[in-house]
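Much of what follows relies on a compact textual record of a protein's fold. The record below shows the convention in full:
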Amino acid sequence: DFLFFWGAVFLVTTTLVAFLKKENQELIPAKEETKGITDTYRLLFSIIKMPAVLTFCLLILTSKVGFSAADAVTGLKLVEEGVPKEHLALLAVPMVPLQIILPLIISKYTAGPKPLNTFYKAMPYRLLFGLEFAFLVWWAPKVKHEGGFPLYYYAAVVLSYALHQITLYSMYVAIMAFNAKVSDPLIGGTYMTLLNTVSNLGGNWPSTVALWLVDPLTVKECEGAQGHHTCATAAAAEV
C-alpha cells in the first residue's frame, strides 16, 4: 500500500511537470559537443580512455569493497536476530534531518582545491563502523528478552547509524565535489554523468556480492540431525 500510494504520487507529479512546465526560451544553455546518442557514447569512450580518468574509475569502483558487508547485511542480520522490521524502519526517521544537514556542513570542507582529502579522512572511520555493526549483530541475542530489546540497545543502534552517516556522507559529498571540479565545462553534463555512474556502480556491485556471499560464508549447525549433516549447502539445510 505504501509503495502503491507513493508510486501513484510519483506518476501524477511527473506527468503534471511534463505537461505544465514550460522551458525558459530566453536562457540558451551552452551546447555540448554532441549531436546524438552515437556521438555521446563516442565522447564517453574517449573520456574513459584518458589515463587519469581510467585510474580514477578503477579506484572508485573498488574503494567501497570494505564497507559492502556492513552496509548491505547489517539490517538483515539484525532482523534475523529478532529486531522487529518496523522498529528498524522507525530508527531511520531520526536519520532524515541528519541526512539533510550533513551535506550542507560537509560541503564547506569539500569546496577547496582538494575535495578528496575529506574522502580519504572519512574512509578509515567508515571501515571501523563495519566492526561496530558486527558487534551490534553479535550483541543483539545477548540483550534480547521476552519483551523484545531494551531501550539502551536501540540507542546504541541509532548512535552507530548516525555516526556512520557522517562518514558515508563525507565520502559521498567529497566524490561528488571532485567529479564536479574535474569535469570539462564544455561537456560537463556528459563528463559528470559518466563519473557519477561509475561512482554509483562502485557502491552497488560490492553490496550485491556481499549479499550473495552471506549464505556460503555463514556457519550453520543442525539441531537433532541424523548422521553427518553439516548444513553447509542450502539443500543440506533444508533436509
The chain is about 75% helix and 0% strand.
